[in-house]
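ok trying again, last paste got cut off:
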Amino acid sequence: MQWPLAGTVRFGSLRRLTPISPVFALDRGLPIDRYYIERFPNRHRLDIRGRALEFGETVYLDKFGDDRVRQKDVFSYVDSPRATLVGDLTGTTALAPDTFDCIVCTQTVQMIYDIRLAIRRLHTMLRPGGVLLLTSNGIVRTGRHLDSDGWGEYWHITQQ
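nice, full thing came through this time. structure:
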């Protein structure tokens, strides 16, 4: 027997011009892109160790760092209650050089215009032997909300 039964799934109106979910499907469970994003740090979970940095929050440090992480830091471009390091990856101020054993940077660099400088700055923040676990967009829709936020999406990391 087929499950669900043929003809019982309601797809809604396929003529709609707006997304089913305005928040990347976070309100509908785990979005498909997050399935693939989370496979990456899971495969490299032994690299998530020592003093570790994540962008915005510590979701992946908590989920994949286990007891190997002795200190968790949060990077933010703007001041926030959770941020332990506030700065600009393309700014002129040095940001914690030779500090981190692991940096988890998911779905962030495509929002930075000078991506090469940002990645160089991330590299300088790593201790010798440190690891940068970085993901970028691939299968998600464009992240820019015209006229409603100040960030843009500048890059799609492809061979093109």
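cool. The chain has a mean pLDDT of 86. The beta strands are 50-55, 69-76, 85-86, 100-106, 126-135.
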